[in-house]
Amino acid sequence: MRKLISLIFLIATLILPYSAQAILNMELTQGVAGAIPIAVVPFSGSDGLPQDVSGVISQDLQNSGRFKVYGRNALNEFPNSASAVSSEYFKHLGTDNVVVGKITPVGDDKYKINFELVNLYESKGSQVLNRSYTVSGKELRSAAHHISDLVYEEITGIRGVFSTKIAYVVVQRPAQGQARYILEVSDQDGYNPRPLLNSPEPIMSPDWSPNGKQIAYVSFENRKASIYIQDVASGGRRLLSEFPGINGAPAWSPDGRKLALVLSKSGSPNIYVMDIASKQLTQLTNDYYINTEPSWSPDGKSLLFTSTRGGGPQIYQVNLGSNAVNRISFDGDYNARASYTSDGRHVAMIHKASGVYSIAILDLDNGTTKVLSGKALDSASPSIAPNNSMILYDTFAGNRNVLAMVSADGSVQVRLPARNGEAQDPAWSPFLG
Question: Which one of 134, 175, 407, 424 counts the least CB within 10 Å of its CB?
């Protein structure tokens, strides 16, 4: 319940310090049984480069939890092209899938990457993917993520999310001095963190625009809650909402033209929709309960939200055409912070059972709820990957707040603890580019 309470009643009292070196460190804690074996051979020409491209690919696939990766330390043969791959050697190793490649300097800080994915299921093997890219030194890691996406999709049939971004709030509390909040954006594996806002006041509820170019969030600057929209590339931002009382939980519509938000300007917290261009408001709920945490359906025709109208926090749906409201969560005495999967068939949410707050997924077809997150006593702020494969959330580990991921079936779990401070309120970007 901590997220619901903090969203509605937080006063700017707890804040934290910033370090530009703050970075998340992805750690696979549980992988799927029967993971797909794959060999990622070190790319020739990699020595001395700013990034180890094949190493990044290995980490991506390994941390997805769905692959058993044979990398540098597991290999005795190092082919750099499909024609040099020994079917006998790699089949004996235990894999039919082999990634090979080479990197060649082609100019001042320019590199050509050639990579191939080989499948040895047939006796002679076959080249499944063959791509070439020319990039700068700074772009080597991004190119590696892109290759990981291609390999992941070719083998699993699901689009990869290694090239996506995540936003989150870093909280740093020094032994002495004022604490700070920092809104950061990083690669999905925690690398390349970049601060968008560094504030001595709380920052909450970041939410990506559908095109991935902007983030809406709540800031308590000037000791009051306000909603801003910020451009990720330029850092430019504008104030959208600063009504008296609560201005909270912004959520972009699928077309990027509207924001759902929570306002208490008329008394109790209620759900509104704002047209971003005109700032015109439409009120969707109008009662004395706590109504908060709106989230759009994929078709933009309805919203999920959390409400206490049934006695305790539960998930409701409001139809934007008729304003009809119906309850959709019934299992457990607490369900909150809901969001749809992109197909509209499932809802990820915070769920309390036996006093433990976990990440759960609700199947809307049959009404069943499945708990996904593990043994942590408190899990919050679920955000679904754009391919629906993983759910990003925050939780407690080692007496501090960290980010974590769990697969939509609960079989894969990953932690991303911040190396400097704590991390909370994560949001996964849409597909980029």
Answer: 175
